[in-house]
Amino acid sequence: MTPAEQTPLARFVEEFTESRLAVAGAVVLLAVLVIALTAPWISPQNPYDLAQLDVLDAKLAPGSPLGNGKTALLGTDDQGRDMLSGIFYGLRISLFVGVAATALALLIGATAGMIAAWLGGRVDNLLMRIADIQLSFPPILIALVLLALLGQGLGKIITALVAVQWAYYARTVRGAALVERRREYIEAAQVLALPASRIVFRHLLPNCMPPLIVIATVQVASAITLEATLSFLGLGLPITEPSLGLLIANGFNFLLSGKYWISFFPGIALLLMIVSINLVGDHLRDVLNPRLKK
Amino acid sequence: MLVFILRRLLQSVVVLFVMSLLVFAGVYAVGNPIDILISPDATQADRAEAVARLGLDKPMYLQYLLFLKQALAGNLGKSFAFNIPAIDLIFERMPATLELAVFAMGTAVLVGLPLGLYAGLKPKSFGARAIMAGSILGFSLPTFWVGLMLIMIFAVFAGVLPSNGRGPTTLLLGLPVSFLSVEGLRHLILPGFTLALLNIALIIRLARSGTQEALMMDYIKFARAKGLSNARIVGVHVLKNIMIPIVTVIALQFGSVIAFSVVTETIFAWPGMGKLLIDSINVLDRPVIVAYLMIIVTLFIFVNLAVDLLYSVLDPRVRLTDAQS
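YS: structure for the whole thing
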């Protein structure tokens, strides 16, 4: 089939599958997604139902039999929780936080960037100065400060992550929009006297999407890492919502006595998720970059 | 140039002022430190006395004005928990953090630069591919987890390296440092490497792409045509040109290394200011939190200014203008 006969989607799929590494990443990512969505049904036990836990099963090495006859493939923690189930539930929470924070930050950042590019002048100057100043500080510091002020909780950590990330999207969208708004199709739309909101959201925004998609993919990974780090420090999620970072932090207490599996396996799960997202994001950048088109 | 520096300094003062307002308002809006600092069975009179002594009974804007006035005189308030000036507490812990940060950055350059140079010179070789795959891993690995795994391997299973504290310190120019004694160096290795990991990956990538670009330049072709040795071409002509972005990134990363040392110090019980921040957040020691944030913001403003200046010195093509974006 010649490129002219292909639909854009088919062309995208064909280009994406050129990199075996990216395909491997996509497969792992899909697996992670499926596990996260179906965790309550595929986990060997509900790790937060106290009735299913037995203290006699605490801190068992991987592969040990549990009191109820099942096997703890990845061992158990200090409460007798099956690590595999804990990781499945943890993936669910980590992924939710990462995706929710990124989606919100994308929404806020893209809107701010669009407004800055469309209005220009003082609004533009103000918004971009705020973004500049914010970007000159490392994300972890901003998130630490915010969480020190806000306290713990799911909503609070998402707020902190959004506050950290919005500036990336605002800058990117503004840059892309400034180029796009000088194009003929925008002029044409203006000549047709379409309302500004329609021009901005139906014509301008869709054409600024490719770089946003790439950044958003990679930012999901960094949001997940940041959340895990903050939860590890005890500033992120409360113990009632155990993300992978909290599982690792809990394992830290038993690491020095050689019980490695309590923090080793959640870390591997975190690593697999992040690497697969980064591989997909990295390749998306190549595929969506028109300058690299043959 | 002078105008540029003045404008930036003025801008910095504004940023500092806004930050002080935000940080103060935020920090003072959270919780009531009296609940943590005073035992629950203290009498009402004891409580009132402590509240008055810590100045917590005044309205918030008065507390802020007092804070601002004292801050300008270099006094950021007394720590509730230690009862010594917060700024002294932070300066006391700062050498440990700076030593860790410098050690980590040094490691990152010593490891990252040769690897990146090699990957750039021989991009098709197996070694280069392995290095680049490793650098992707370096970006993806959650740093705190790497720290735990290093403790697991080197401190628990192999038992060859210590996993917490600074070890014995020796005085260097009046500052306590660890790296002068063997035992101190052994304590530095694990936290230093944990902190360096991300930057090793970053420097590898920069050095590689810089080398590949430099190799295509006319001046390299000319140097080859002159019959210069490969070592001289790489060591002088390539290295000099790839150093510009690398020095910038090292300087810029130095700030985030200090910020990120919060995590590393917590894992390795390193007695630096990052651990102090986490401890202070846990006991709501407001003056210390505020003082830490003000000092770190000041530090960042100077680092960023220094990077801009350094850039124009290293690369004469860069013209400093406070461009209106």
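YS: worth flagging: The CA atoms of residues 90 and 244 of chain A lie 5 Å apart.
IM: good catch. Also The two ends of chain A are 16 Å apart (CA to CA).
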